[in-house]
Amino acid sequence: MTTTGSPTAILHLRFHRAGFETYRELFTVLGDITPVVQALPPDGALLDLSGATRYFKQSPAQLADRLQTRLAARYGLVSTGGIGPNRMLATLAADAATPGTVRVLPGDPAERERFLRGRPVRALPGVGPALERSLVRYGIGTVGDLADLPPATVQRIAGTSTGRLLHERAHGTDRRTVRPAGPPATITSARRFERDVLDPAEVRRALLAAATDLGARLRVARQVARTVELQVTYADRSTTTRSRTLREPTAHTPALQEALYGLFAALGLQRARVRTVTARVGELTAAVGTAEQLTFDRAVENARTLEPVLDSAGRRFGLGTVRPATLLARRMFTRS
């Protein structure tokens, strides 16, 4: 297992049930410990604690405990983490940690190697489902199995560049660094029901309202979004968050509506009382120069054609002045 000359301590934290806005706010707390913080949306972060350990004269484990205590006190958040000498090992430690705790990998390289060799090969960054199936066909199920192979054999299975990278990572080397980056710019739209609802049709109406709102705001800002996220808050205040990457960046309401409907349907909720739905679009880029895929769906094309008219009315009379007819009925939710 490769080690570096100066000790490095990377902390990978995951936040349980963190809402969109809370996730953005908590980076203020993380930044109080170290300026080297990289967001891993929608619920994680990487922190390089190397400088912080010298500044605060505390161990990485003590700093992680301080962070968890502050996050719990300020936001009521439970977090799980892992600490290792590089990004990959910190993530693997977090994967193996008990919820609400931080697992610190041992300083002894031999002990870290034993930990790494026992992990499933799919745990290595860069190993997706297709590559995992290929490795398993050759009897490679653990990182140890992979580490025991000659580099040429790994390259023959996975390709030259990928094989070289996998060989390094199977021996504990990860050349990636923590790059300071806060949460990406997003636009959020939330709908809170006047009473907890069971009817999926009511939820879909709220999602349509959110999609209409998000689409109009994106077009006003002349931006398009690549990702859509949905957070459902239940009567007991617990939440579920799901996200989807769109086939192409868009600001069109029908595409956002379809994505939100799909995310909600995938939850498979039965008899769940829903209190709030929150939709967010991310990975925003300028709409100028963005390619747009044509479709033969007349309803979608008609909606796209109508959008400039609705946007013009919105600029003159205010966003939301003109909206789908199904939203003109008695409202069961409020915008929040």
Task: Summarize the structure in words.
The chain has 13 helices and 11 strands. The protein starts with 9 loop residues before the first strand and ends with a strand. It has 2 domains: 10-170, Alpha-Beta Plaits (2-Layer Sandwich); 187-335, 2-Layer Sandwich (Dna Ligase, domain 1), CATH 3.30.1490. The protein has helices spanning 20-25, 27-31, 50-56, 60-75, 87-96, 109-117, 129-137, 143-147, 151-158, 160-170, 200-220, 253-267, 298-317, and strands at 10-16, 37-40, 44-48, 78-84, 102-104, 187-197, 223-234, 239-250, 274-282, 285-286, 333-335. It is an alpha+beta fold and 336 residues long. The strands form 2 sheets. Strands 6, 7, 8, 9, 10 and 11 form a 6-stranded antiparallel beta sheet that branches. Strands 2-3-1-4-5 form a 5-stranded mixed beta sheet. Helices cover 42% and strands 22% of the residues. Keywords: DNA damage. InterPro entries: DNA/RNA_pol_sf, DNA_pol_Y-fam_lit_finger_sf, DNA_pol_Y-fam_little_finger, IMS_HHH_1, Rev_trsase/Diguanyl_cyclase, SulA_CellDiv_inhibitor, UmuC. Residues 24-128 form the UmuC domain. This is UmuC domain-containing protein. Belongs to the DNA polymerase type-Y family.
